[in-house]
Amino acid sequence: MMMVMSFATQAQTADEILSKYFENTGGIAKWQALQGIKMSAILNQMGMEIPLTMIQLRDGRQATVATFQGKEIKQGMYDGTTLWSTNFMTMKAEKSDAESTENFKLQTADFPDPFLDYQKKGYKVELLGKETVEGTECFKIKLTKKPIKVDGKPEDNITIYYFDANDFVPVMAESEIKSGQGKGMTSQSKMSDYTEVNGMLFPFTMTQGIKGGPGQPITITGIELNPKADAAMFAFPTDK
Question: Given this model, what pLDDT does residue 5 score?
Fold first, then answer.
């Protein structure tokens, strides 16, 4: 009996869960064909609603543009070579250091989903069992990606995902913060309100923050697949 129970527990593998995830969100073929995503959103920060535009392209280019008090604040701007952001104090564009840029470049391999063709990326997945998240029974999957560098030293790059055991979509992700003020704390993202866009499902409500904290709600107001993007918007500004 013990052997039968053990076999039954292991019958649901991580790959089977991921296969159902892609099947339920549009099919593996649509995920593999995706060339870009553009999201329009509203970030609620301390009662203030801040409009956001986020673009991710298969070739690695990314952009996040926030509109605050009539000004555009750009974060995580990447043209495939240079990573840069708007300095909140000077409101001028500043390039990131070499280590941050290299870590960000690794992250671009996650498009359009870190679990898509994860073996080819050199990632590993492990099913850790089940856990209940805010009343929802979930499969707990550990994703280990290529190490990042912190002060020149390699650090583990691990994220724990919680997949709804009924719908097989991720409802939460957690990872350890490796640097900065939050070093050693756990970053937590929650995803819900999955909505269809051109035959694919995406979460339209997200909350990001520190585990145990209130988090910052993000409401997606629109998603455009395979958008046209002007190369100039990703480039570091040359004007002084």
Answer: 40
Q: Is 122 left (phi over 0), alpha (psi -120 to 50) or beta?
A: left
Omega cis (within 30) before 112: yes
Contact 233, 63 (CB under 8 A): yes
Mean pLDDT across 208-224: 95
Q: Give CA angle at 215 (203, 53), nearest 5°.
A: 50
190: Cα within 13 Å, side-chain hemisphere: 17
pLDDT at 10 over 60: no
3-state secondary structure of 2: helix
pLDDT higher than threshold 90 for residue 12: no
Look up residue 119 and give its amino acid: Q
Q: Match 């952001």 to its residue by tokens.
A: 85
172: β partners: 162, 190
Match 């004007």 to its residue by tokens: 239
**CB under 8 Å to 119, separation ≥6 — which residues?**
none
Confidence of residue 180 (pLDDT cuts 50, 70, 90): confident
Task: In whole angstroms, give the CA distance from residue 105 to residue 83.
Answer: 9
pLDDT of 169 strictly over 90: yes
